[in-house]
């Protein structure tokens, strides 16, 4: 579905919707959780791990999860986030600013995890909860994020060739089944989706579960083997002069998330470099899929503004593709299901990237040939009359 959205995108909201569907798959969360996802909560940690921190609406607790890149550009969460940020038309705090605002009145509900002594010491909270009960019901009646996701799915699923009826809850079940099919521990899947948030389970999860387990689930969701090391692309592989050029283009692309006075409106420099690397890495595929799309047009216009040619963009993309570290272990699909026949090499992400790169280079050469032909014709037409005037001047000379 995300590939279909990329191929038919005509507005900035299309890329926002693609990022919404992609993050629903990776975060195992309710759609309402993404309304509280802020740009400032994106970070990179040690070990080449991209982290996203957000608040689970039902439990009002912040959770940090890892996102890993996918070799396929259509399902790469980092590319989806980058496209959503560069197409923002105003500097918002939220990562996905097209979502309706989530009403948080229901967070004051009494849960079994609240100690009885706290309720006895603060009876006013019970009175406020009792008086606001009717207001909470009225708020929940209003159409919110779940209705928005369902409308997006109804609009995209049929045209993308998805026969199954999808809703806003389908991503949680589908992602869990995908991770469970790889032999992942059920406890790790539950922890990532925050499905066992009782007081006892939270205590045991804090003691026994570590970020390493979450990294394994993140690798499986990104079509990697659980134990396979996945490294983030970095601009550090370029020389210093090239890094300055790329960061100049990035500053123009991410204008709504960089250099603003309020820290909550900005993303940090390391996150910017990572997102820019994946934007360049998958630029040929995006251009091949939809050359007139808003994201592709914006990338090229910002590059032209910084005096960067299309050939340089393609060269940077090829450099990042060549510097992608090849894993020594097979992917999750190869390790769990042995293929009966030889796999089609044309479907490999690296092959698709090189094919898109070659196609763009061919188009560049064709444009250069056209320009050279026009210049040669212009020069020939200028030289021919000048030669004719010389011949006329020689014949008109008087004889001595």
SSE blueprint:
Elements: H1 2-8, H2 12-27, E1 42-45, E2 49-56, E3 61-67, H3 77-86, H4 116-121, H5 123-131, H6 133-141, H7 145-156, H8 170-181, H9 186-193, H10 199-208, H11 211-221, H12 240-253, H13 269-281, H14 283-289, H15 294-305, H16 310-322, H17 332-336, H18 349-395
Antiparallel strand pairs: 1-2, 2-3
Keywords: DNA recombination
GO molecular function: DNA binding
GO biological process, one term: DNA integration
Structural account:
InterPro entries: DNA_brk_join_enz (IPR011010), Integrase-like_cat_sf (IPR013762). GO terms for molecular function: DNA binding. Keywords: DNA recombination. The structure is a single chain. By secondary structure, the chain is mainly α. It has two domains: about 280 residues, hpI Integrase, Chain A (Orthogonal Bundle); about 40 residues, no CATH class. Helix content is about 55%, strand content about 5%. It has 18 helices and three strands. The chain has a three-stranded antiparallel beta sheet. Helix 1 runs antiparallel to helix 2 and helix 2 packs antiparallel against helix 3. The longest helix is centred in the last third of the chain and has 47 residues.
